[in-house]
UniProtKB/TrEMBL annotation:
Its cofactor is K(+); Mg(2+). The gene is nnrD. It comes from Victivallis vadensis. GO terms for molecular function: ADP-dependent NAD(P)H-hydrate dehydratase activity; ATP binding; metal ion binding; NAD(P)HX epimerase activity. Keywords: ATP-binding, Isomerase, Lyase, Metal-binding, Multifunctional enzyme, NAD, NADP, Nucleotide-binding, Potassium. This is Bifunctional NAD(P)H-hydrate repair enzyme.
Length: 500
């Protein structure tokens, strides 16, 4: 989905309205979509919704939500609802009697209590200039309450174009529901930190013209389009044959996590090559072999030659998780780089490549999945200037290494050597846990094995499925849980579920 700036958003709204859809119709669609997502997010955890309504259309969206929630609702309005204009005025008129409205110049801590779900409809794309004291007060008290906030369109206080909280205060949302198209500010500056989980509601805006906009963000609709679909009578050999070359004596768990994830993502056949026998039980569905190890418990150089029959039997390879560091690994890496299909390199394979950039030659597609530390080492090794802007940095790595580059973190970026890039919308802080990257490498590897011809799309899809698995797991998640949750995310998308 194309990322756009505020001016383009206004133009598309105006054009859609001129083409015959009323502004209020658009606002209703936004509010209805948001209310549905809030119901799903909230479950039965909350006793009351507190809706913060500013004086513009962002407030109007929140009033539509207030009318639709099936729990007690209190609206704190920054100005009398009778002073609202246009569509927001209409939304105020349509509020049912049971919604309790208070016009408040100021809020204090006692205005929120445990069991509240806060809806932020203070400021959206119309926010400009210095935050007025009343809005700053609303934002600060809401953040201080510790109750989860769902932001309408943008977290209030965030500039829709730059993502910067220019006035030093912005809503820290648990969930942001953005309307029509994702705005640029959600992906820069304070945007990723303040927006929390991200969802998009289609409000039927005119389509953005090709070439307009700024890059792509990957949402559930993109996952629905990209997920490989199989004929009813497919054979396992056509569902992707992945070789995972991973692990060491010290880090055998990494290999097992990657293998589980690849199987649960739906690869037809997964082979796991390790330099040791894992101390953990392996899934029976896995094909496993122990390869020669050096003294330090890592792959020995002889493993490079012995891998040949397995490489010939595979449609993609994922390598590097838990490799550790040993003298034989460079030869193994060289052998893998000769593999003609897609090769995913992660973790220690990337660190090795950073130290030995001359090894970078390739017949097939290379996909790299660095976390920020590994990306930093690659930048040093390959002489790439580091950029504080993660999108720019991922693009520079992709271009220099001629590799589809997945730069991990909140709002993971996937960049292609040809300049395309896509920011992932799914994911949450619960993914910041040991082993979660190993699962990602198995998931992306499986998708590359299924669709070797679409490495950029499959890598972006893998990031989305992994992020969604994290969201499904939530607090207390450990990497061992993730493969099963990836399966649920894949299953939900494949079955056309309305969730996500
Ligand atoms: N149009 C459509 O069809 C659709 C629009 N949609 C929704 O509308 C949103 C855009 O609405 P918008 O343009 O009304 O602006 P909005 O974000 O509510 O902000 C304006 C308000 O903020 C105030 N304000 C401004 N600066 C301020 C400051 N520094 N400090 C404090 N206050 C400040 C300003 O106050 P005023 O200057 O009027 O006193 C005014 O009250 C968009 O994000 C989306 O949610 C969806 O429903 C889809 C259909
Ligand atoms: N704050 C966060 N929000 C969303 N995703 C995150 C966050 N922190 C980490 N992740 C994701 O978790 C994974 C961590 O991978 P990595 O750092 O390689 O972990 P490990 O090496 O322990 O497996 C990546 O997919 C990354 O994008
Ligand atoms: K908002």
């Amino acid at each position: 989905m194309r990322i756009i700036d505020v001016e383009t958003m206004r133009r598309l709204e105006a054009e859609t309205i001129a083409a015959g859809t009323s502004g209020y119709r658009l606002m209703r669609r936004a509010g209805e979509g948001a209310a549905e997502l809030i119901r799903e997010f909230a479950g039965n955890r909350f006793r009351r919704a507190v809706v913060l309504a500013g004086g513009g259309n962002n407030g109007g969206d929140a009033l539509v939500v207030a009318a639709l929630l099936d729990m007690p609702v209190t609206v704190y309005a920054t100005r009398p609802l009778t002073e609202l204009r246009g569509e927001a005025r209409q939304a105020a008129r349509d509020l049912p009697d049971h919604v309790h409205v208070e016009e408040r110049t100021e809020l204090d801590d006692s205005d929120f209590r445990p069991g509240d779900l806060i809806v932020d409809g203070l400021l959206g794309t119309g926010f400009a200039g210095e935050l007025r004291p009343q809005f700053r007060n609303y934002i600060e008290v809401a953040n201080r309450s510790g109750q989860p906030v769902v932001a309408m369109d943008l977290p209030s206080g965030i500039n829709g174009d730059t993502g910067v909280a220019d006035s030093g205060a912005a809503v820290e949302a648990a969930l942001t529901v953005t309307f029509g198209y994702p705005k640029r500010g959600l992906f820069h500056g304070d945007g990723p930190r303040c927006s929390g989980r991200l969802r998009l509601v289609d409000i039927g805006l005119n389509a953005v013209e090709p070439g307009v906009g700024y890059g792509e963000a990957f949402f559930a609709a993109d996952a629905r389009r990209e997920l490989p679909r199989f004929a009813f009578d497919i054979h396992k050999n056509l569902r992707g044959r992945l070789l995972i070359a991973a692990g060491s004596r010290e880090y055998s768990g990494a290999a097992v996590l990657a293998a589980n994830a690849a199987l649960r993502t739906g690869a037809g056949m997964v082979r796991l090559a390790m330099p040791v026998s894992p101390r953990l039980p392996l899934p029976a569905a896995l094909i496993f072999r122990e390869f020669p190890a050096g003294r330090e418990g890592c792959f020995a150089a002889e493993a490079a030659r012995e891998l040949t029959p397995w490489l010939e039997a595979s449609s993609a390879v994922a390598a590097g998780s838990g490799w550790g560091d040993g003298p034989g690994l460079a030869e193994v890496l060289e052998r893998l780089l000769d593999f003609p299909g897609p090769l995913l390199l992660d973790a220690d394979a990337l660190n090795l490549l950073s130290r030995r950039p001359e090894l970078r030659r390739r017949r097939g597609t290379l996909v790299i999945t660095p976390h920020p530390g590994e990306a930093h080492r690659l930048a040093r090794g390959f002489g790439i200037p580091e950029s504080a802007d993660r999108i720019e940095f991922a693009c520079a790595l992709a271009e220099r290494l001629h590799a589809v580059t997945l730069l991990k973190g909140a709002r993971t970026v996937v960049a292609a050597p040809d300049g395309r890039w896509s920011v992932n919308s799914s994911g949450c802080a619960d993914l910041a846990a040991a082993g979660s990257g190993d699962v990602l490498s198995g998931t992306v590897g499986a998708l590359l094995a299924m669709r070797p011809d679409a490495p950029f799309e499959m890598t972006a899809l893998g990031a989305w499925l992994h992020g969604m698995a994290g969201e499904l797991g939530g607090r207390g998640l450990i990497a061992d849980d993730l493969p099963g949750l990836v399966r649920l995310a894949v299953g939900g998308i494949a079955a056309g579920s309305a969730s996500f």
